[in-house]
Specification:
The chain is an alpha+beta fold. About 25% of the residues lie in helices and about 35% in strands. Strand 1 (about 5), helix 1 (about 10-25) and strand 2 (about 25-35) form a beta-alpha-beta unit. Helix 12 (about 400-410) packs antiparallel against helix 13 (about 420-430). The chain is globular, with a radius of gyration of 27 Å.
Length: about 650
């Protein structure tokens, strides 16, 4: 076993690797950018080395700096995590040339699976079923359009390099193909430096089921399947293991196909073989096709660990240190059911727009495993993926595990940034999902309901009023004491643009009466909990600056309004289209003098490795375009100015 390893990554995966290394007595070296100097993974590691600026290209993608850090600190091996350099064969060769061990597959194995078109051809040779499509080298738009016609719409345009839904577009009809192709190529070129695409048949009721494999370079085993069908924009949201509705025959067929794929390339380490499955007639051994292989540890690996009892990171260390596979296929079995939900800093009602912010409060429930790379006080950086944590639960059955997931999400508390927590809760409680009737289109079909902003009840508003007045703390011995009438205080709150006015009557012994228009509630402390109108409630609150966040299943945020500072300037900024986050102006589609209507696409902002379309919020005439394509802008920068139509 190694004495010391370097982790060429950041965030929750770096913290996850450190935890296993501690268990095995292996020392760890963290690397970090300027933005991550005070991050959790740096604090957890035994040593830390600064490797460059905040941009990934200046730090986590600098293989030479990472290798130099490993040599300088005496690390014997490098764990790549996922993302960044984890699937870069040139980096693998550089690591090995430096006399270090790369904790993953060989460069040749990564190259074999790195381009989706070449990987599909290799899988066909190995007897693994592949999706009908065009995977050739001819990238002429006319040829690709012809291939799409031959395959039959709907089709899926996919970047041959990379993953994570980037460079991927679904096309329903021929008239939309050219625009989708141009958009997919642009995004792929930015994210992966390779604009080449392939065309695949889009399966009508597709399920995304993947198989965890592990090899030692000669032999491989599979650790069963994960269902990752709950996706939005081709990015996974909630994963589970095993897949609902899976039959023994289907599991055996998929497992054997995945092992054939791994052994065909002499695979070593943890990997995932991803399949697209036709769920329209149930799960059948003849209804799955190879999509791609991820030659690294997956984000969703904890659900496999939960049902098998295997620490996949420990296996990575042991095999990289020269051991053979820790067990045979017949030694592996499934126990219970597990779910993982990805908690992100993102604004769901605004189209899942990635968000930033400083986490003023962060608490995870004891009833779940939470893999995270941040702590309260940390900042969600615009430079990297905005994941806050992965919430993982494991129960004896799928029904029990799903109830555990709902409970864990309800007890998770985050303040300081908007998150997708309410969206995850609604998804966990979705009737179709609960019944196991899942496919990759579920979220899109019910998006309006799933993405709805949580509505605060009058009880929640009453709690917010107490928090805004600083009355949420334990009462003192003379709290609420007055000589004559009870003390009455007023507070004005802003909740999603709506004004909430409350009058709070403070009574002795930590008791309050809160009046909200024609509604009134009696509140009292009951130890660590509150009683509202005599009923105990599970709710907490946090005051952060000029905001009160009440956690009552969902997180409800209220702005504390200073009545003296209220100005009558409503709607003044509605004509300015601003950058919602720092990014690169990829395209501008309008010029001064153009007339636009609500919903018209005005510009594309590239941020966090994704393209975001900015649209008109009202009808108007473009009066000014302060920026040009190619400009790097900060959050809040004016991009388009609209005037009223004459």
């Amino acid at each position: 076993m190694f004495h010391k390893i370097l982790i060429a990554n950041r965030g929750e995966i770096a913290c996850r690797v450190i935890e296993t290394c501690r268990k095995l007595g292996v020392a760890t070296v963290a690397v970090h950018s300027d933005a991550d100097a005070a991050s959790r993974h740096v604090a957890m590691a035994d040593e830390a080395v600064h490797i460059g600026g905040s941009k990934p290209s200046e730090s986590y993608l600098r293989g030479d700096a990472i290798i130099a850090a490993a040599k300088a600190t005496g690390a014997e091996a490098i764990h790549p995590g996922y993302g960044f350099l984890s699937e870069n064969p040139d980096f693998v060769e550089a690591v090995e040339a430096a006399g270090l061990v790369f904790m993953g597959p060989s460069a040749s194995a990564i190259r074999a699976m790195g381009l989706k078109d070449a990987a599909k051809a290799l899988m066909e040779e190995a007897g693994v079923p592949v999706v009908p499509g065009y995977h050739g080298a001819n990238q002429d738009p006319e040829h690709l359009a012809g291939a799409a016609e031959a395959i039959g719409y709907p089709v899926l345009i996919k970047a041959v390099a990379g993953g994570g839904g980037k460079g991927m577009r679904r096309v329903e009809r021929a008239a939309d193909f050219r625009e989708a192709l141009e958009s997919a190529r642009g995004e792929a070129a930015t994210a992966f430096g390779n604009e080449a695409v392939l065309i695949e048949k889009y399966v009508d009721k597709p399920r995304h089921i993947e198989v965890q494999v592990f090899g030692d370079g000669t032999r491989a085993v599979h650790l069963f399947e994960r269902d990752c069908s709950l996706q939005r924009r081709h990015q996974k949201v909630i994963e589970e293991a095993p897949a609902p509705g899976m039959t023994a025959a289907m599991r055996a067929a998929m497992g054997q196909a995945a092992v054939r794929a791994a052994e065909a390339i002499g695979y070593a380490g943890a990997g995932t073989v991803e399949f697209i499955v036709d769920g329209s007639r149930g799960l059948r051994p003849d209804g799955f096709w190879f999509m791609e292989m991820n030659t690294r540890l997956q984000v969703e690996h904890p659900v496999t660990e939960a049902i098998t009892g295997v620490d996949l990171v420990e296996w990575q260390l042991r095999v990289a240190a020269g051991e053979r596979l820790p067990c045979a296929q017949e030694d592996l079995s499934i126990t219970g059911h597990a779910f993982e939900a990805r908690l992100y800093a993102e604004d769901v009602p605004k189209g899942f727009l990635p968000a930033t912010g400083r986490l003023t409060h962060l608490r995870f429930p004891e009833c779940a495993r939470a893999d995270t790379g941040v702590r309260a006080g940390d900042e969600i950086s615009p430079w990297y993926d905005p994941m806050i944590a992965k919430i993982i639960v494991h129960g004896p059955t799928r029904d029990v595990a799903l109830r555990q997931l709902e409970q864990a999400l309800a007890r998770t508390e985050v303040a300081g940034s908007v998150t997708n927590l309410a969206f995850l809760r609604r998804l966990a409680g979705h009737a179709g999902f609960a019944a196991g009737d899942v496919d990759t289109g579920l979220i899109a079909r019910d998006l309006e309901a799933l993405a709805a902003v949580p509505v605060a009840s009058s009880q929640v508003m009453a709690l917010a009023a107490l928090g805004a007045l600083g009355l949420d703390r334990e009462p003192g011995p003379v709290s609420g004491f007055t000589l004559w009438a009870p003390l009455r205080r007023q507070v004005v709150l802003d909740h999603g643009g709506e004004v909430v006015r409350a009058v709070v009557e403070v009574r002795p012994g930590g008791r309050f009466r809160v009046e909200l228009g024609g509604t009134a509630h009696e509140l009292a402390r009951d130890g660590a909990r509150w009683r509202i109108d005599g009923a105990a409630v599970s709710a907490g609150m946090v005051v952060a600056g000029a905001e009160v966040i009440v956690f009552a299943g969902d997180a409800h945020t209220f702005g504390i309004v200073d009545p003296l500072a209220v100005a009558a300037a409503a709607g003044g900024g509605s004509g300015v289209i601003e950058a919602p986050m720092p990014g690169l102006v990829k395209a501008i589609f309008v010029a001064p003098g153009d007339r636009v209507a609500v919903g018209d696409r005005l510009a594309i902002l590239e941020a966090m490795k994704m393209e975001h379309s900015l649209t008109a919020g009202r009808d108007g005439v473009v009066t000014e375009v302060p920026v040009a394509p190619g400009a790097q802008v900060e959050a809040g920068a004016a991009l388009i100015v609209l005037g009223d139509e004459e």
